[in-house]
Amino acid sequence: MNILNIFDWTYYFDSNLSMMFLGWGYWVILVLLVLMIIAGQVVPRRTKKLPFLQRQLALRSAATANVVGWLGLLWLGFRYEGIKYFSWRLWAALLVLYVLVQIGLMIKYAKFDFPAKRASKVSGQERDKYLKRYLKK
User: Fold this and answer.
1) pTM for the model
2) DSSP letter string over 68-131?
3) Which residues contact 111 (CB under 8 A, 6 or more apart)?
4) Sign of CA dihedral 63, 67, 68, 70
């Protein structure tokens, strides 16, 4: 396999299965996908005591790992069976793109959205401190 094939659009629509299931590479991918599914189930249960931002990032990572694990296993099954349209390499490339987008969204949340949300909450508390007598119900 040539690394330059990733720039050729016909590479993604190829159903050539000759090298996919030979050697230990297939088993490594299978084990990684199963570990992603397990992590997607275990991490949300283990993050109860973490600070809010770390918990949110762990939950988002676990959700992404769960989705990628199940869809990856489904794709490997289609690839193993040789189903024409579902065994294309395009689906694996879309999974990689999905992971990259989710990583970008998590970075955006940690760098921009969370600090803005925290700042608005603090400013709201200060405002309420001075308007306490008018906000009574």
Assistant:
1) 0.77
2) HHHHHHHHHHHHHHT-TTTTSTHHHHHHHHHHHHHHHHHHHIIIIIHHHHHHHHHHHHHHHHHT
3) none
4) positive
80 in Cβ contact with 86 (< 8 Å) = no
DSSP 10: G
Summarize the chain as % helix, strand, coil (round to 5): 80, 0, 20
Task: Give the span between the Cα atoms of 87 and 79, in whole angstroms.
Answer: 4
Residue with tokens 């921009």: 112
First-to-last CA distance in the chain?
71
pLDDT at position 1: 61
Q: Quick one: which of 80, 94, 104, 108 has its CA closest to 22?
A: 80
